[in-house]
């Protein structure tokens, strides 16, 4: 399996695990007689568990290699997905989602580490952008496919199909040549010490946390999209999938633009541009969003375009700040992103009067933080 396809599939584990399942949330509310916030815990707990295990898989892959950690992670993902498919209660589903998240964390974290192992410089930026383009098809198609499964089959089939995709990823990892040639040593304390080493790297820590905050409105929208589009505007499962796919189209266009412009313009200048576009999306959400599904989608496409455009550049720049402990650094970077995602999903699930306005305010704040982070460490960074 070509490396680009494998990396894209591994990186797509989290969106496949969440977006395909989104149209089923109202169905499960009615099936088990629970609130939206309770069912939404299946997203929040997934993200929280996922974030914690990112910190485990990263240094383990530095110690034992990428392939064995990935294979164990994918087996965990398949086990958790099977438990979700067989769930008879919300408690059983939540347990399955936690196991699923523990496995997905290996795929997501090590996809980033493998990009550092296999590529460098502008080539890595372009590869990460191409992965972003391919990944965008997952959130574009996943809710539509999930909606069709609900219409013609069962919500359980959503999780069965995720297991099938995981088997394809498992085959790709089995065929992968182990890229790590120098392994770290020691036990648990030594592994934990790798994080202390990375944490002392001020440019890495400031930039990783600053740019991680840019995902806050993106994941708030994912967590609140069913409530906004289906409960507030009364859209059906399949129509919801089209609107959600339009939102994901912004992410794909941003990543595609990055593939064309990487190497043409300076990374720092491109980041300034995308931060400005991101802030504009927040302003548009405050001015236009909330009245119709069209205005929400129009503002969100600016936000997701900016996330898709900036992520390959910022991730590559952040990884350039480290020379060793790449697995631990990738774990920290991805942990910060998805822990913020978990907070955003929990926050949006509360009973807000105007959720689009909350997303818009979050986007404006989230644009200023990475801008400040760049100014703080710009003189100490490798660009």
Automatic annotation (TrEMBL):
It is found in: Cell membrane. Residues 3-383 form the Major facilitator superfamily (MFS) profile domain. Its main location: membrane. The keyword Transmembrane applies. InterPro entries: MFS (IPR011701), MFS_dom (IPR020846), MFS_trans_sf (IPR036259). The chain crosses the membrane at residues 34-56, 68-88, 94-115, 127-149, 155-174, 202-220, 240-258, 270-288, 294-314, 326-345, 357-377. One of its GO terms (cellular component) is plasma membrane. GO terms for molecular function: transmembrane transporter activity. It is a multi-pass membrane protein. The keyword Transport applies. This is DHA1 family bicyclomycin/chloramphenicol resistance-like MFS transporter. The lineage of its organism: Bacteria, Pseudomonadati, Thermodesulfobacteriota, Desulfovibrionia, Desulfovibrionales.
């Amino acid at each position: 399996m070509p490396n680009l396809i494998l990396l894209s599939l591994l990186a797509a584990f989290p969106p496949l695990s969440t977006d395909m399942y989104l149209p089923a949330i109202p169905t499960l509310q009615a099936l088990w007689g629970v609130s939206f916030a309770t069912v939404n815990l299946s997203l929040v707990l997934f993200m929280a568990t996922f974030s914690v295990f990112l910190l485990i898989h990263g240094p383990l892959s530095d110690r034992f290699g990428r392939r064995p950690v990935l294979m164990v992670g994918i087996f965990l993902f398949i086990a958790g997905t099977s438990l979700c498919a067989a769930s008879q209660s919300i408690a059983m589903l939540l347990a399955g989602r936690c196991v699923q998240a523990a496995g997905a964390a290996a795929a997501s974290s090590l996809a980033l580490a493998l990009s550092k192992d296999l590529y460098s410089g502008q080539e890595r930026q372009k590869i990460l952008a191409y992965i972003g383009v391919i990944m965008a098809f997952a959130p574009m198609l996943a809710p539509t496919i999930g909606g069709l499964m609900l219409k013609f089959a069962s919500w359980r089939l959503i999780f069965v199909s995720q297991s099938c995709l995981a088997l394809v990823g498992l085959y790709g990892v089995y065929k992968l040549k182990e890229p790590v040639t120098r392994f770290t040593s020691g036990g648990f304390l030594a592994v934990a010490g790798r994080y202390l080493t990375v944490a002392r790297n001020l440019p890495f820590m400031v930039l990783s946390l600053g740019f991680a905050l840019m995902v806050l409105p993106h994941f708030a929208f994912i967590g609140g999209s069913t409530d906004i589009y289906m409960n507030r505007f009364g859209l059906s499962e399949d129509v919801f999938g089209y609107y959600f796919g339009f939102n994901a189209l912004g992410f794909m266009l941003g990543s595609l633009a990055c593939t064309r412009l990487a190497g043409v313009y300076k990374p720092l200048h491109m980041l300034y541009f995308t931060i400005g576009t991101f802030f504009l999306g927040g302003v548009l959400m405050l001015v236009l969003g909330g009245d119709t599904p069209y205005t929400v989608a129009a503002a969100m496409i600016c936000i997701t375009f900016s996330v898709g455009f900036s992520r390959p550049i910022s991730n590559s720049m952040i990884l350039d700040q480290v020379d060793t402990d790449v697995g631990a650094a990738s774990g920290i970077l991805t942990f910060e992103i998805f822990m913020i995602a978990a907070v955003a999903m929990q926050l949006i699930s509360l009973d807000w009067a105007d959720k689009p306005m909350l997303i818009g305010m979050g986007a404006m704040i989230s644009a200023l933080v990475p801008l400040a982070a760049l100014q703080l460490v710009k003189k100490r960074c490798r660009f």
